[in-house]
DNA sequence: CAGTGGTCTAGACCACACT
DNA sequence: GTGTGGTCTAGACCACTGC
């Protein structure tokens, strides 16, 4: 395992790996990975907030006592993971869901014709929002214990007046104290941007499990469709920094004029 | 626009952009992008085949009269796009769907419990495989003209004996002359690996549109489910090099014991 | 051992944005 | 012009693979 020459007078080489001395894996870690970890730590601790710029490559290189190229490689990876955003001539910025360019990055439902951006944001109607105790499956998804406090919300999203998405959302109670239906309904912009601003929680990545299902009577009523209408069931777990799960979301998507779009590579 | 110093005696700087002289966009293209284009061209023309190694970074640097670092950056991007695969100490290889590591990379349907790899490959039953004329929508998807020859196939994939996927596949007739039902059913390994080996067609990326639907009588019979069973409709267009569409695939997935898995970032 | 990709440095210059 | 990220080079050394 290499170590960072934070207090050394001279930039150092990685101090070589464990070799055959122990039974543990060598676990060689390149310098730029360690730098990446340190930057990640600063992001996590809120040293730089979403939308703000981080120090220049030269400054970071000086701070960490490494060359610009090494800092550069660390930032490259963080930018590839959508944690940072580089803008030539301006600087490097902490990514945010408020950014116009990548707004609604996690919403893959697209209208069959035309551009998603043209359609504009959905009309949101919050059915319910309250503090409850986590059921076993919700607790498991959010890495909590059964019975821990969670905020539970249900809302309907409509496009051009047509109810299209029915969403149930669960959030850890400790991180989202005081979340109201009003916030979920009336915040201008992506919900995840509101989470950043009001609760300091930045969603970094998510996993979705998708199925085809038929709605129960309640769900059909909420979406104003017959119960025989097949719907897309989308279960999402969203994670903050360090793979900590911070949201469970179960969506039902009406897919007669929309589709879920995915790119494979 | 910079140009490559292929015959120069000295490594060159990019020859600067157009400046304000013309009305055309400057279209500055960094050296490594040009190198990337040349490597791409060699891949496309089959100079190096799937699974083979390409020349070392040093050799390519010599061939293109640039530094190793520049070649490196070009290869980095191609590796990130899954066109090449780097293996430390061994070399850089042309990616292939036959690779154990990334087999069935485009199949996102996973069993609800356990690992996909454990389940093993599906049993394939080919219902139909014949040469037909392209309908308007198939032609559009494959960038052909209506009436052009296409190979059309239908097959059912079963896991542990349970029919789970019904697939209709369309392929450009000119590139897949002589494709048989036997090949589609009995080739050991991913179908896309067979396409590479027998037809020299490598699928590089794909786009999918997903909906929830109810099957018609025929489809329900093929999957041995009631007609009221909601199914995932997955329409895929797969592309070779240079964004040329080479396959249209319409799948119906049974999602009672499986789900479509997606990662968002 | 030689050859491959992987890391790190140092320095030069280019493209872009702001002032 | 100044400062930012972006490109390119040259050279050194490290880690991994296979002869």
Brief write-up:
With 265 residues, the first copy, chain A, is of the alpha+beta class. Chain A contains eight helices and eleven strands.
Describe the structure.
The structure is a homodimer of 265-residue chains. Chain A is of the alpha+beta class and 265 residues long. The first copy, chain A, has two domains: 12-94, Arc Repressor Mutant, subunit A; 100-260, Chorismate lyase-like (Chorismate lyase, 3-Layer(aba) Sandwich), CATH 3.40.1410.10. Chain A is built from eight helices and eleven strands. In chain A, the strands form three sheets. The first copy, chain A, has a six-stranded antiparallel sheet with strand order 5-6-7-10-9-8. A three-stranded antiparallel sheet of chain A has the order 1-3-2. In chain A, helix 1 packs across helix 3 (68-80). The longest helix of chain A has 14 residues, at 31-44. Chain A is globular, with a radius of gyration of 22 Å. Mean pLDDT of chain A is 90; it is low at 1-23. Chain A binds a DNA duplex (19 and 19 nucleotides) through residues 11, 13-14, 16-17, 26, 28, 30-32, 56-58, 66-70, 72-73, 75, 86-92.
């Amino acid at each position: 395992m290499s170590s960072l020459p934070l207090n050394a007078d001279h930039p150092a080489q990685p101090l070589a790996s464990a070799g055959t001395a122990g039974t543990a894996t060598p676990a060689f870690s390149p310098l730029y990975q360690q730098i990446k970890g340190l930057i990640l730590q600063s992001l996590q601790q809120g040293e730089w907030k979403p939308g703000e710029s981080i120090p220049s490559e030269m400054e970071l290189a000086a701070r960490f006592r490494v060359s610009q190229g090494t800092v550069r490689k660390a930032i490259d990876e963080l930018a590839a993971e959508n944690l940072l955003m580089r803008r030539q001539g301006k600087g490097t910025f902490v990514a945010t869901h408020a950014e116009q360019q990548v707004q609604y990055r996690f919403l893959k439902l697209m209208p069959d014709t035309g551009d998603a951006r043209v359609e504009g944001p959905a009309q949101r109607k919050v059915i319910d929002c309250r503090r409850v105790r986590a059921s076993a499956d919700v607790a498991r998804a959010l890495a909590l214990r059964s019975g821990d406090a969670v905020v539970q919300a249900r809302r309907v999203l409509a496009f051009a007046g047509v109810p299209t998405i029915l969403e149930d959302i669960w959030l850890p109670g400790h991180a989202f104290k005081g979340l109201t239906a009003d916030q979920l309904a009336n915040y201008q912009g992506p919900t995840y941007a509101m989470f950043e601003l009001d609760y300091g929680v930045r969603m970094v990545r998510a996993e979705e499990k998708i199925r085809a299902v038929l709605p129960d009577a309640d769900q059909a009523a909420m979406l104003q469709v017959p119960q025989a209408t097949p719907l897309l069931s989308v279960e999402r777990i969203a994670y903050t920094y360090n793979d900590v799960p911070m949201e469970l979301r179960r969506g039902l998507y009406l897919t007669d004029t929309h589709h879920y779009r995915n790119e494979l590579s």
